[in-house]
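Morning F.,

Quick status update on the modeling queue. The single chain you submitted on Monday has been processed. Sequence for confirmation:
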Amino acid sequence: MTTSTQSVLAEPFTLPCGVTLPNRIAKAALSEGLGDKRNAPSPRLRRLYERWSTSGAGLLITGNVMVDYEAVGEPGNVVVTDDRDSAALSEWAAATTANGAHAWVQINHAGRQVPRTLNATPVAPSAVGLDLPGGTFATPRALEHDEIADIIRRFAATAKTVVAAGFTGVQIHAAHGYLISQFLSPLSNHRTDGWGGTPEKRRRFLLEIVHEVRAAIGSDVPLGVKLNSADFQRGGMTEDESLQVVLDLAEAGIDLLEISGGTYESAAMMGVSAEPVKESTRKREAYFLDYAERVRAATSLPLMLTGGFRTAEGMASALSSGAVDVVGLGRPLALEPDLPARLLSGTTAASDVQPRRIGIRVLDSAAELSWHTVQLWRMGDGKDPAPHRHPLRNLAQYFATTGVQSLRRPKRGFSG
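Structure tokens below.
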């Protein structure tokens, strides 16, 4: 690795709010599944983030923290609606920031993407179910206007609570088919009132959440948004429509936009989509770099790109091009929790993470998910990751812990 590559990755970056990230590497959101039985932060979750606090990443973004106990995406999600778990939240925040990294909480509402075993009557913009086999997810009920307003207030309340607990910022999850993404997509939002029917009305929900969260946390606390470049489904939100959302977010004054893509039905965020990956994309590593370049041509809004990065050279190239300002790493940090530090020091040039499949197509996605998730659980137990553990063994452990309903389709656990 060249000295110039190291210097690009190590360069600090100042956000519009005035906060400076110590370097250009972020740990992207990974669904930990380590909340306790009350959906509160557990000692295992704190222990995992103590480990990541020494990773070298300048920004650590948590996995899903949900704004409603009835809208969790999977077992073990942390839920924050008020200050009832403020002590545990403060301990988690202190562990995450102990070595100088910024720590942002990713706040979310699952909408229709709640497994039937957790909620048989989920809500969504419209009564449109997921196009998935197996009956894992129930058909949702369309939200009433007053309920939509209440959810917007919940996002703001959760954001205010976690910042008061010591987290240094907040990221609103508007990607991967969760509730905000459901409002943005014409496939799942069939409303004809003030919350749907046109692209402008479909993005109103997100923009009102941004406005209320900003009012709750203040102008000097970083506010990020994670957004799909596209749904990667016929009839879904397109790149052109997504780009307009970006321009509105820039005008709304967010500090960092993380670009991702896909939904449960088309998991582009995991490198899986209806369209084959272009060879040029493989060479450039990042799944959504072409879209990031479109965004950069239209706005100076700071950008974080997650998905596919594996080498220091690929990361530095994306940063040096000016297309993005921060690179996000997800799955690599499940296996190599100190990878950013080694990339920054020049002792490592690339991640060793490889797909963990078992050769049975119907189970491969579940095997990939479970292999990485169990590594997080091991670190939460104070153990090292086990890179040579067979995927079937991790699959069995994941199944025993979460149950069959969680394995019907890959969750967004690799990247939030």
